[in-house]
Amino acid sequence: MDRSLFVLLLLSGLLRTTSALFRQYYYINARMSWPEAQSYCREKYTDLATVDTMDDVNRLVNIVDDGYSGSVWIGLKRGTQKRWVWSNGEDTLTQYSAWGNGEPKSVNECGYYNNGVWLSSSCSSTNFLVCYRSTGYVWVETYKNWTDAQSYCRQNNTDLPTIHNAQELNQMKSIVPYYSWVWIGLFQDSWQWSDKWSLFFRNWAEGQPSQSSGSDCVGMSRTNSGKWAHESCNLKRPFICHGGPKSPYHSYHYVNESRTWQDAQSYCRARFTDLATADTMSDASLLVNTVDAGYSGSVWIGLHHGTEYRWVWSMGTQSQYSIWGSGQPNGDGECVRSFNGNWYDGSCITALPFVCFNDSSGFNIITTAMTWRDAQSYCRKHHCDLASISSTEQQNLISNQISLWIGLFLDPWQWSDGGNLSFRYWTEGQPSQSSGSECVSMSRINSGKWAHESCALKRPFICHGDDKLIKKQIVKLKLSCNGKCMLNDPSIQTAILNEISEKLKSMGLESDSKITWRKGEGEEVFHQEINHTANSNNKCD
Known about the structure:
The protein is α+β, with helices and mostly antiparallel strands.
């Protein structure tokens, strides 16, 4: 099985480095709180920066502006669950562990080795240490606390050791003097990445992380070798995102099969991401163009009636700032007008002047009275949308002398994929109060406008997201061995596949795809390569 272990080590090395090699980082020189930075990164890229290795740390430091000497937000935040994990980022304790009796103790947060077993201790204690590098383990006869031991190993070798099996434990045991206490890579961790990445690489500054309450988000210091510290999530910091810039357009897929809304939702979730979500008028136009030209009916999209009503903006965002008048909102209606510096709810069919917004000219007061829906359509056609107001300064730009429709409205609808944006594109008379019509379809011929109807009706539908069906991929392996090679033994091939599958699963990289050997003539997987001796008379035909 030595050759299978070689294959697994090679595969592990390739897979572990893939994410770090291709992860793109983007420094955003705008000061935001951690939640605001997270929202920005998720909207524009993938998420706040996730870090796997010291190489990643160095890349983060290098993209921060040279003139900035403070901290920047990364994607780490305090979680709700503590787990014992390894310094190099792995979470393999379910596969192998060698804890001594009564260990690990919950009050201790760092692990050490002594006389063949693992024990736990306070991270501030001082012990000798063992590092590892490509050539094996390195004994270091110097007293350090766990964090300093980790820094030493990363600076002079690779990291504190990760122990996967009894063989590796015995290898380390062979270089450690009898009864010596030595730090290994185990530590107890309660932090998690914003993008749910499962690796546990950490680069804490000295004295971090502490138990201080209210400091639940992590910043990276540019000047302190990229070390991390946790602080209040409300502080305003520049930040780093990761992932390729998101396309301003959704990836839509029209499915020409008539299904109920729920069946269409299940199909989209299994094959793509979910039923189609639309955030802008550009999305609404794309939806129409996705449908087959010969079809003139309605198609399901991802909007459905929820259980919670929210005050949201016509431009697609939720309301954070508010300046309601006394006793407001009082249930008079589902649309909002501004008057004398305050907001009031009212019936959406009342005709009032209104305020539009566009990027070039800002707020534009339209004195022609219209219903809220007609005002919304007018603003979207001639400007951008009905005005969204997010500050007292913006509110002061609106005339206080007359009642004006603004973009705020009460909305009970929600997207199937959980998206928070509240862009809506209802047809005239929609949404109505008809019961039992709780799912939304789009009309291809009515400019792509939306109406709600019974979820039990069967319609074609539109999904969004990348296709999850993974194309077949062939990986070629070339192995060398001494003596008789038995790699075409079916039992050995099965054992290798099982080990590869377990390795992928432990790294969070396994999909639902089936891993199989590709067989050639004679039902053989591996074919012995015959070496030819070259000489000066050999010619290429």
